[in-house]
């Protein structure tokens, strides 16, 4: 779906306060953005995640896109968000990391969301590195030279 008139909006939805922590990091790295919503599920027993998600989705117009970042595939937060995934303007990315979120929120909004998300997921996978193993391999390589 090409985004020609609407706005690309984002929702970070997690168990507990992870969403707020990610937003704090985003604000430092990218600058504060007003197109990012947060849901920190289960921290306030008087709030329902279903109501929180509906409140966000209600703020997304038909021409807008909503990219949702949820923490755990198969978790209750993702399962609640998936109720909206059948809408053509709602995209759900589960198991996110900070580099993935940064890449997607900074992506050109003229690039289709599906393309942006697919590329960001591939790039984010490369951010997962067991650094000790990498350093050991480099040390061994230097010793062999």
TrEMBL record:
**Which controlled-vocabulary keywords does the entry list?**
Transferase
Q: Can you provide one Gene Ontology molecular function annotated for this UniProt record? A: transferase activity
Q: Which domain of life is it from?
A: Bacteria
Protein source organism: Mucilaginibacter celer
Q: Which residues form the PTS EIIA type-4 domain?
A: 7-128
Upper lineage ranks? Bacteria, Pseudomonadati, Bacteroidota, Sphingobacteriia, Sphingobacteriales
Concerning Pfam families, the annotation shows: EIIA-man
Q: Name one GO cellular component term.
A: membrane
Q: Which GO terms describe its biological process?
A: phosphoenolpyruvate-dependent sugar phosphotransferase system
Transferase among the record's keywords? Answer: yes
Name this protein carries in UniProt: PTS EIIA type-4 domain-containing protein
